[in-house]
Design brief:
- By secondary structure, this protein is an alpha+beta fold.
- Helix content is about 70%, strand content about 10%.
- It is built from nine helices and four strands, in the order ααβαβαβαβαααα.
- The longest helix is centred in the middle third of the chain and has 42 residues.
- The radius of gyration is 31 Å and the shape is elongated.
- It is found in: Cell membrane.
- InterPro entries: ABC3_permease_C, FtsX, FtsX_ECD, FtsX_firmicutes-type.
Length: about 300
C-alpha cells in the first residue's frame, strides 16, 4: 500500500468517525465496557490464584540420631538454596520438649516422671514453610534425599486440597473468560455492523463509480483499528487506577491482612493485560468491519 493511499484511508476513517460521532462513541463504549469486565475479572483471578499458590505449607524435617552440628548446618545451607523456601527455623530437642509440655498443660499428670529426662532428646528438627504449593512434593522428595535426614513430616492433605482448589478455579475461570469473550464479540460486532449498514448507500455509490473493494474497505478497517485501540486503552487506564487504589486502601486499612493478602505487582498483570485487551479490541473491530462490508460490497 502506498503512503498516499494509507494517508487517505486514515483520513477518511477519522472523518467517518467524526461524522458519525454518536455511533463512534457507542462503539468505543461497548468495547470499553466489555473489555473492562474481562480485564477486571482477569486481574481478580490472577491475584486469587497467586494468593492460593503462595499459602504457607508447613514441612517438618527430623534428623537421624547422633547427627553433628556441622551436618545440621550443611542440611540447612542446602535447604536455603531452594527458591520455594519462605522460612526455616531450627528446633532443638529442649525446645521441642518445652512446646510439647505447653500443649499438655491441662494434663500435668501425663508429664510425671519426666522432670529430668527429655523423651524428645533425638527430636531436633527444622520447621519449614514454603510459599509455593505446586513445589511441595518436589521439595519433600529433595529433602528426603539429603544424607542425615531421618523423617520428613509433610502436609500432603493440605497441599492436595489447595492444588485441587487451584485447578478448579482455573477451569471455572477459563469458562467464564470464554463466555465474556463471546458476549464481547457479539455486542461489539453488532455495534460495528450497525455503523457499516448506515453507510451502505455510500459504499454502493463508490462501488458503482469503479472503486476497488480494497479501496472501499481500508477506511473502515482503519476505523475498526482506531475504535479497538481506544476502546482497549480506556479500560486499561481505569483498571490500573482502580487496582493501585484498592491495594493501597487494603494495605493502609487492613494491615493485619498484609501477610495473607499478597497482591501481584501491577507490572506482572499489565505485561499480559495490555497486549491482550488492545489486541482483542483491534481484532474485533477489524473482524466486525470485514464481515459486514463483505455483504455490502456485493453490488
Amino acid at each position: 500500500m502506498k503512503i498516499s493511499a494509507l494517508g487517505y484511508s486514515v483520513k477518511q476513517s477519522v472523518k467517518n468517525m467524526v461524522k458519525n460521532r454518536l455511533l463512534t462513541v457507542a462503539s468505543i463504549s461497548t468495547i470499553a465496557a466489555c473489555l473492562f469486565i474481562l480485564g477486571l475479572f482477569y486481574t481478580i483471578l490472577t491475584n486469587f490464584q497467586y494468593m492460593v499458590n503462595h499459602l504457607e505449607i508447613g514441612v517438618t524435617v527430623f534428623f537421624r540420631e547422633n547427627i553433628t552440628e556441622e551436618e545440621i548446618d550443611f542440611i540447612e545451607s542446602e535447604i536455603r538454596l531452594r527458591p520455594e523456601l519462605k522460612s526455616i527455623k531450627y528446633v532443638s530437642p529442649d525446645e521441642a520438649w518445652e512446646m510439647f509440655k505447653e500443649k499438655l498443660g491441662d494434663f500435668p499428670e501425663v508429664l510425671l516422671g519426666f522432670d529430668d529426662d527429655n523423651p524428645l532428646a533425638h527430636s531436633a528438627s527444622f520447621e519449614i514453610y514454603l510459599d509455593d504449593v505446586e513445589k511441595h512434593n518436589e521439595f519433600v522428595r529433595y529433602v528426603e534425599s539429603i544424607p542425615g535426614v531421618r523423617l520428613v513430616r509433610r502436609s500432603d492433605d493440605v497441599a492436595e486440597i489447595i492444588k485441587g482448589f487451584n485447578v478448579l478455579i482455573a477451569y471455572v475461570s477459563i469458562g467464564i473468560i470464554i463466555i465474556l469473550l463471546l458476549v464481547s464479540v457479539f455486542l461489539i460486532s453488532n455495534t460495528v455492523r450497525i455503523g457499516v449498514s448506515m453507510r451502505k448507500d455510500e459504499i454502493k455509490i463508490m462501488k458503482l463509480i469503479g472503486a476497488t473493494d480494497g479501496f472501499i474497505r481500508r477506511p473502515f478497517i482503519f476505523e475498526g483499528i482506531i475504535i479497538g485501540l481506544v476502546g482497549g486503552a480506556i479500560p486499561l487506564g481505569l483498571i490500573y487506577l482502580l487496582y493501585n487504589n484498592v491495594i493501597r486502601y487494603i494495605e493502609e486499612r487492613f494491615n493485619i491482612l498484609r501477610d495473607l493478602l499478597q497482591f501481584l505487582e501491577p507490572s506482572e498483570i499489565f505485561n499480559i493485560l495490555v497486549p491482550v485487551l488492545l489486541g482483542i479490541g483491534i481484532v474485533i473491530g477489524i473482524v466486525g468491519s470485514r464481515i459486514t462490508l463483505k455483504k455490502h460490497l456485493r453490488v
